[in-house]
Amino acid sequence: MTQTPQDFAEFEKRITEEYVSLSRRLQQTARFLLDHPQEVAFATVARLADNAGVTPSTLIRFANSFGFKGFSEMQKLFRTRLVEELPNYAERIRAVRTATGETPDSTQLLWEFAEANRDVLEALPSRIDPHDLEEALNILEKAQIVHVLGARRSFVVASYISYALHHIDKRAFLMNGLGGMYDEQMKAVGADDALIVVSFSPYAQESRDAALEAEARGIPLVVITDSNLSPLARQADVCLVVHEAEVKSFRGLTGSLCLAQTLAIALGVRQEKSRETSSDI
Q: Considering the chain, what is the average pLDDT of its residues?
């Protein structure tokens, strides 16, 4: 008999480990549950099924496949997570409003975006593993050139990373795919270089292809993405997961840009320290 997860962290780990063996529908369910944990905490099975694009019976089957007696028992883990991890009552109230379908009028929109992004930034440091952050910096520091790729919505973050790396005197190249030449730009990545790929759902094919090639060629790969179930996570040497704010289906980039800035400045600090050490010898 499948053992029932005792907390959300264990459940998330189990989903990540067993994701590849799940059916297509259960994979679709897994992605939705982990990408919308606040909504799952309060919404009904019918509403969640509708938003996830699956049937209510699929949600129940998903819960049963992980050892829960029913959907309600699984939902309790999401509610417990909400109480224990979210920073304040404002975010919890917003989660309830999202789940019940209530929406503010247009004059409140700026406030809602600002509050949602503020909460993302407050939670970001506790959700990024310090070991992963340091390992990502190790990869970037050793690289001769850091190549950065982000297609579509992710391009904003990728272009900022490239910009910031240039300003700390780290050789960087933005893979912009100009003229459809992603493949050609990928071929320019050398054995002593590193690749950063920024990709959010639905995960651009160009980003997936670059990650697969990096894995095949043994090029160190840092991925910034929005879920441990991202198809790029499996190829990454380091995967940094950022949960962005989502207001009325519009997803922000605040957390990803903050992480990008942190990587660049922390790398700059490392380089400066290394130069000082060398000059003292």
A: 87
